[in-house]
Design goal:
Number of helices: 9
Strand order of the largest sheet: 1-4-5
Distance between the termini: 59 Å
Number of domains: 1
Oligomer: single chain
Order of helices and strands: EEEHHHHHEEHHEEHH
Radius of gyration: 20 Å
Shape: globular
Number of strands: 7
Length: 267
């Protein structure tokens, strides 16, 4: 306590993890890039572990490599294009080259989902496989990337929360001198860590095709909608909902359909 007021932590984290010498002409390795690398690494580990246990629709290590590569491309391209189309259209019109500066942040999880979905559809079609088991696998691999992505948002001091007087509130100087909810950490837990633990235990149970995907979508949607209540609505509102909540509604619908469909098939 200082003068009767809480001494809130002031965010001063450096978004660059490893600085390069100025003569190199490059700033360095950003935490944002390392976060995505960590997400892909854990996804690759889980993919290999489950493939060797005979739990995935993959036939061999070559399928494994091809799928993880497709996921990486779909995540990065989809996430970046989703951010531009959903949240940064004006910025893109003013500076079209911003679409390539991914190290500065700006990846939409909804766009990343769509990119991974298209990658999975391509992979399943190229291998003449049913998409539902592939969809379950993709959803089981997604939470790690979401977890580290939200942690990177916190390090970058972006997507900040609403003003708060809670003891754990954080001051983000680039935003304002007001203490705010560390909503990025809330979302890291709800959208990343909790679903990661969920799929870790649920995927090996050999659920009906589509069931795990439905559960994951509902769990993610609930966490995203609740998390948005603590997050500054910098992208505005759509029909009374924040943009993030609105674009999450299709996940609620699709997740409910998948869970209901698999419950009926079991019955």
């Amino acid at each position: 306590m200082i003068g009767g007021f809480l001494a809130y932590w002031v965010h001063d984290l450096d978004p660059v993890a490893i600085h390069f010498p100025p003569s190199w002409g490059l700033r360095g390795v950003h935490w944002y890039g390392l976060a995505y690398a960590a997400g892909f690494a854990i996804a690759a580990y889980l993919l290999g572990r489950w493939r060797r246990a005979g739990l995935t629709p993959l036939r061999n290590v070559h399928d494994e490599s091809a799928l993880i590569t497709a996921i990486m491309i779909g995540t990065i391209m989809g996430g970046r294009l989703g951010h531009v189309l959903l949240y940064a259209r004006a910025e893109f019109v003013a500076d079209p080259m911003m679409v390539f500066r991914v190290w500065q942040g700006g990846m939409a999880s909804h766009g990343g989902f769509l990119g991974v979905l298209l990658a999975g559809l391509w992979f399943a079609r190229s291998r003449k496989q049913d998409f539902l088991p592939m969809g379950d696998l993709l959803c089981a691999l997604a939470p790690a990337g979401l977890l580290f992505g939200r942690l990177a948002n916190f390090v970058n001091g972006e997507l900040v929360g609403n003003p708060s007087t809670m003891p754990w509130a954080v001051i983000f100087p680039r935003e304002s001198p007001l203490p705010r909810h560390p909503s990025q950490l809330y979302e890291a837990f709800g959208e990343g860590l909790l679903p990661l633990l969920w799929v870790w235990f649920r995927y090996p149970r050999r659920l009906p095709p589509g069931r795990l995907a439905g559960e994951f979508l509902l769990l993610y949607a609930a966490a995203r909608i609740i998390g948005e209540c603590f997050r500054s609505a910098e992208d505005g509102f759509i029909l009374g909902l924040t943009a993030g909540q609105f674009w999450t509604l299709p996940f609620v619908v699709l997740g409910s359909i998948l869970v209901f469909r698999t419950r009926r098939s079991v019955e």
